Amino acid sequence: MLQQSVPFLMVYNPLLFTLPKLMETLKQTLNNLVSTCLTEVSGIADCNANVITASRPEFGDYQANGVMSIAKQLKTNPRQLATQVAELLETQGDALIDHVDIAGPGFINIHLSSQALIERADLILNENSLLIPATLEAQTIVVDYSSPNLAKEMHVGHLRGTIIGDCLARVLERQGHRVLRQNHVGDWGTQFGMLIAYMREVKTENEDLPTQLADLESFYRAAKQRFDDDSAFAEIARASVVKLQSGDADHRAVWEQFIEESLLHCHAVYERLNVTLSRKDLKAESFYNNELEGIVSKLDSTGLLTVSDGARCVFLEEFTGKDGTPLPVIIQKSDGGYLYATTDLAAVKYRSFDLKADRSLYVVDARQSLHFQQVFAVAKAAGFSSGSISLEHIAYGTMMGSDGRPFKTRSGDTIKLVDLLDESVRRAFDLVSQKNPSLEESARQLIADKVGIAAVKYADLSKNRTSDYIFDWSTMLSFEGNTAPYLMYAYARIKSILRKQSVILEKYEITSLSEQEERNLLIKILQLAEVIEMVANDGYPNLLCNYLYELAGSFMRFYESCPILKAEGPLRDSRLSLAALTADTLHQGLDLLGIETLEQM
């Protein structure tokens, strides 16, 4: 006989009743609380309490700084206003706040309740996904990144755009947004006429073309040499462009063979870098080719096009040179050829109206800043962008050598990305062999593969993306400081501690924050979601790197001050639970950077 069902709301589920709070970060919860009180006391609608993480322990855990600006509007004493807000806040009885106090001219210092922190942490231990809560307002977000030129192999200049873009895509996806990766590869244009002509010539002599394409860089240089040295070949190359763009079947077939081989090179690098781009994300220049004539027609019909020296251009009054002369956005060359701007306008239109994106992020070199400012402005003026889409250039600087110039080989050639990764793995293997020579070679190689790739990625991601940075083998492979090896080792060390439990806990549960180092570590763990929110909004992966480095340091202080395995009973279990939550936080944070962890090092 079936038992009578119990009405759903009669079943007490602590996760169910606490979940709305967990959908907010600590900072969001506090900002909402204090802002509401500030609005009520001041009578000014929609006040912002401007809650920030406290800079020093004596200022509490968080600090509300928004009182001063409101007091200025009211022409009242800010400390007196802060006192009124604090008094009202105390009457709300929110479990998250232990107490508040006033500092300086009107700062509100907020001290969190240890019990509330424990309860939040224990819910996360039972529901892993709550460590980074899903956004309440999911968006459709395009992330345009990597975008190599398929005429050549990927080089070191492609590293930053590829891994920064991949990190942002991972972060946004983890928050619950619908992320559409777009790899806007260069696969169209004049240089492909040269390559097609050379391929047709070589294939006539030797049918084994894929073997020759094993080194795309050498193939490109050989084709370029023929183009420069032989005027007759150069004419054939130019004619090949026309035939390709007009849809000639033979030329198209040769082009497709070259593109396919080039993509195999790219995706081998992506797989090695642990980058999430796949073939389905490919939206090459050629994808937009049939739309370009329509782009020109629309610009013409809206009165934006001007002919200048035979080229069709758009001049917008907000873009001028140093001498005050207008700067053109060239849409179509005098010979009828299209440019990057034309294709980018077609891409904006596609992302706005076909993909219906809320945000479109362009992870591209900072040297293209003016180009994107102009393209976004033209798109808006011509109606190629919807009123709801946010077009954002995620600019990044250059990887520099020790001489302060763009990183290249001693001979001045651009370094292939695959060669850089090979070198990093080789150096990591030597380092691992020195530190742990007793490990079997296969185990050392596995560690070296992970550490070598992670070191290259983290050395880049940990820098402010808008700055140029000096590439330095010695620092990036160090097991000390803000590096991938240090963080990977910190994670492996915690996992080692957890494996040494004499009795495996059936359930992780934090029950005590009796020591300051325990409390500091737990608060740092719970701040991951705040950092992820900043990375998602502003596009700076180095914020996540800095956080993980601070988290690892906070754990080490906890480990040194608070015995774990030597503790007894509930205290030991609580500290093991805190260690487990730290390990999971490190793992999730490194995964969002595209870095794989190791259980043992």
Can you describe this structure?
The chain is α/β, with parallel strands linked by helices and 601 residues long. The protein has four domains: 14-112, Arginyl tRNA synthetase N-terminal domain (Gyrase A, domain 2), CATH 3.30.1360.70; 190-277, no CATH class; 285-396, HUPs (Rossmann fold, 3-Layer(aba) Sandwich); 417-592, Orthogonal Bundle (Isoleucyl-tRNA Synthetase, Domain 1), CATH 1.10.730.10. Helices cover 53% and strands 11% of the residues. The protein has helices at residues 14-22, 26-42, 67-74, 78-92, 114-126, 159-174, 190-205, 209-212, 216-229, 231-246, 249-273, 292-301, 340-354, 369-382, 417-435, 441-461, 473-476, 484-499, 516-526, 528-538, 542-561, 569-592, and strands at residues 51-53, 62-64, 97-103, 107-112, 140-144, 178-182, 305-308, 311-320, 326-332, 359-365, 390-396, 399-400, 469-470. Strands 1-2-4-3 form a four-stranded antiparallel sheet. The chain has a four-stranded parallel sheet with strand order 6-5-10-11, sandwiched between helices. A hairpin with a 2-residue loop joins strand 7 and strand 8 (311-320). Helix 7 (190-205) crosses helix 11 and helix 18 (484-499) packs across helix 21. The radius of gyration is 29 Å and the shape is globular. Residues 1-18 have low confidence and may be disordered.
